[in-house]
Design a protein that fits this description.
The chain is mainly beta and 170 residues long. 12% of the residues lie in helices and 40% in strands. The protein contains one helix and 14 strands. A five-stranded antiparallel β-sheet has the order 6-5-4-1-7, with no helix packed on it. It has a five-stranded antiparallel β-sheet with strand order 13-12-11-8-14, with no helix packed on it. Strands 2-3 form a two-stranded antiparallel sheet.
């Protein structure tokens, strides 16, 4: 009897998580609307985008993202709305039309050197300032190819925000 009571409590707690998050992503790894993985990275398509407290136009706008191309992480889906967060964990709900599948990353080290090949001994091709938004290209186990401002090269993945540590891209 005690085990049954414990199981019911665990199920109730899981249901509460689903209710609080507004989606089933706590129990599944795919979005209920798109069937795409959750969480996943996207970028801002628009130059500005209202960030709302909930998934509708009637919800209050908490702030506005003002950086085209900024990488964001989608953590939940509801109809035409996506709950996103930025590098600092700030976020809310934005309309899907404001987002793009084009992948970008945020450089997390000042004067990050990028190399001609994914190797620290390879020639340096450029250095990117902290906070630069770069387009994401191919990714290997610990390196990703990035480009911004007409420059490109390979950077250590751990120095970029907007790409999962285990993510591989061709």
């Amino acid at each position: 009897m005690r085990n049954a009571a414990l199981a019911i409590r665990h199920l109730a707690a899981a249901a509460a998580v689903v209710v609080l998050t507004g989606t089933f992503c706590a129990a599944e790894s795919r979005g209920p609307v798109t069937n795409l993985p959750l969480p996943r990275y996207v970028s801002m398509k628009a130059a500005t985008g209202n960030v709302r407290r909930g998934p509708s136009l009637s919800h209050k706008i908490d702030w506005v993202f003002k950086r085209r191309g900024m990488p964001l992480e989608i953590t939940a889906e509801y109809g035409h709305w996506r709950r996103v967060q930025d590098r600092d964990g700030a976020g809310g709900w934005v309309h899907y039309a404001l987002l793009s599948g084009v992948r970008t990353v945020l450089v997390e080290e000042d004067m990050l050197t990028v190399h001609a090949r994914p190797d620290t001994r390879a020639p340096v091709t450029a250095a990117f300032e902290l906070g630069v938004v770069a387009r994401l290209g191919e990714c290997e186990a610990s390196w990703c190819e990035i480009s911004a401002g007409g420059y490109s090269g390979w950077a250590p993945k751990k120095k970029l925000w907007g790409v999962a540590p285990d993510e591989l891209r061709e």
